[in-house]
Amino acid sequence: MKRFFFAGVLVILQCLAILSSAADTTDIRFEYKTERLNSKEVLLSVTARLAPGVKLYAMQRADTDALYSNIIFDTTIARLFSGTVTEKGAKQSEKDASVNAAVNFFTDSVSWQQKIHLDPNDSLVAGVQVNYLYKKGEEYLPGEEAGRLYVEPGEKAPDNADIQNRSLLWIFLTAFGGGLLALLTPCVYSMIPVTVSFFTKRSKTRMEGRKNAVIYSLSIIFIFTFIGFLITLIWGPTALNDISTNWIFNLFIFLVFIIFGISFLGAFEITLPSSWSNKADSKANASSFLGIFFMALVLVVVSFSCTGPILGLLLPVIFKGGYAGPLIGFFGFSLALAIPFALFAFFPSWLNSLSKPGGWMNAIKVTLGFIELALALKFLSNADLARGWRLLDREIFIAAWIVIFILLGIYLLGKLKFHHDDELPKNDFGLPYLSVTRLLFAMTSLIFAVYMIPGLWGAPLKGISAFVPPMGTQDFNADDLPSGFRFPVAGAVTAHNEAGEAEVLPQPVKYHEEMKKNEPDVVVNNGMITYFDYQEALAVARKQKKPLMLDFTGINCVNCRKMEGQVWSDPRVMQRLKDDFVIVSLYVDVHNVYIPRQEQYFSKTLNRQVETLGDLNADMQVSKFGANTQPYYFFLDGNEQRLAPEGYGYDPDINKFIKLLDAVKEAYNKGGVAN
């Protein structure tokens, strides 16, 4: 009798609620997720996120429960169920006066989970129905939610035994290879002049040079192994990339490079206060260690935009070695990065001890000063792009580099003198002359400056497209001039369908005004349309019946610009991208463009509230695709199923990328997955 009484009360409450007010969809947001636990089990999860002031009633566990919610996973797959539905969250209890009984509820979030048995090569689409009841203020509001869960084949997590049996030596060698690869990236190479100048100024004997080299290398290993590991462990998988793209860090590095550059030009000497120097001398030159450690820290910070993607590729490997895996992996990576720097750092000390001081040494310092000023502008540009200040647009940046490298060429020709410069050496006739080496460097600098001049009018400058701001920031472009005065454009705005007919993709709308300035040169110069919102691009892909290409990228991603400039710009690649795909550029480092308030949510992956477009895209990449590197490309069909089992990261092999695009297109036409 009591059971029927409570049931009647619940029906009355629900009817009154329906008549008085409908459930507000912003009060509760539902998320769906699948996860392969091992080779035999998959976890289906439905999570409800609650707005403040909302009480969502828990599942019915007893006949006496008066106010409750229910979740029903697809009964057609009941044979696959492993156990019953579990409910996870901070459950609370109180006595509800309306039913005169204790009720269970949640005020933050709750996850309902169901384990199923599924072979690793099998896929699954399962429906789920949630009938829920919640209280907001004094109102009892019912609601229904229907969703689908997708399980893809071949994405099983390794068994615990497999993880424990992984060879730590294999993890070390893989990470070590990644460190060697990182040495070839532009960001690490750009730090070599700073390292040379630093040890050139500090090392006066061979022994001192060797000691400094060892300290420098050990500092790199320490910083990468411990600090990088702890940041990733504590703040999550996107922390390293967040640091490298943070505008405050980029401004800090800009100031450091400016100060060093001006110092190397002879304006002043960077020295510690005399009191510090005296104290340092009394403590075995401790300041030398601090200075070397600082330089190692600068290397680690400024190289993250290039080494971060490689570390991101290695994380899935090194985190599968138990507690020792991350330590061994980061150590192997940093060791590979440090050894060449140590060997290179030995050379200036050896050169200084054998060569007599002279004008050549100051010429090296001044040359490095010019280069550091140029690099400083790159970091200022990073901060400028991140904040949208528009202080250093493309033509201003290029103009500044042209001036810097013209002045460097004039200096190397001996026509520009600084405070510490000597006269040029004299030949047998007593006349000053240029060495062939110095002349060649002067010619290189001037040729580079001349090469950049067309960029002032919108030329693509493929050779340095990874460093200059995107074409969207350029106010003047020769393409806007009448025909006959324009630079040639590689393509048109239209694409072609399979019938060979020209068609125009719908223009992007969402976030386009805020993001169009970040479009890379190769996109602008080829008239290619890219979208900035995933759902908008998905809708276009469905309508056009084309595969969707997800381009996870970044404003300050050097490797992204290299991939676009070297691979996308190839006519064969560009034609395929324009004709056969719908492309959405998902920038993970845009933190000044906010998503609508009703779309904001808390991300457990990022461990913070997702409020910006960058956070939204970063969370999508990590949580949906298990990757955290840029560039990274994924291909989906209209049902959001992958057309390629794996993503595609930074790899400038044009033929390999073409082969992938063709395989994805063929898989889309056949309704399968590319091999």
Could you characterize the architecture of this molecule?
The protein is α+β, with helices and mostly antiparallel strands. Helices cover 47% and strands 16% of the residues. It has 22 helices and 18 strands. The N and C termini lie far apart (62 Å). The N terminus is likely disordered.
List its salient traits.
675 residues; alpha+beta; four-stranded antiparallel sheet; 22 helices; 18 strands; 47% helix; elongated; disordered N terminus
Itemize the secondary structure elements and their pairings.
Layout lengths: L1 H19 L7 E9 L4 E10 L3 E4 L12 E4 L7 E9 L2 E5 L4 E6 L2 E9 L6 E13 L2 E13 L8 H6 L2 H15 L3 H5 L1 H11 L3 H30 L3 H7 L1 H18 L9 H9 L3 H17 L1 H15 L5 H31 L4 H29 L6 H19 L23 H17 L42 E2 L5 E2 L8 H4 L5 H5 L4 E2 L2 H11 L3 E6 L4 H11 L2 H10 L1 E6 L13 E3 L4 E3 L2 H13 L6 E5 L17 H17 L5
Parallel strand pairs: 13-15, 14-15
Antiparallel strand pairs: 1-2, 2-8, 3-7, 3-9, 4-9, 5-8, 6-7, 9-10, 11-12, 14-18, 16-17
Helix pairs in contact: 3-11, 3-12, 5-12, 5-13, 6-10, 6-12, 7-11, 8-13, 11-12, 13-14, 14-15, 20-22
Q: Main sheet, how many strands, which sense, barrel? A: 6 strands, antiparallel
Structural class: alpha+beta
**Total number of β-strand segments?**
18
> How would the global form be characterised?
elongated
Low-pLDDT residue spans:
1-23, 155-166, 276-287, 350-357, 481-494
Compact description:
With 675 residues, the protein is of the alpha+beta class.
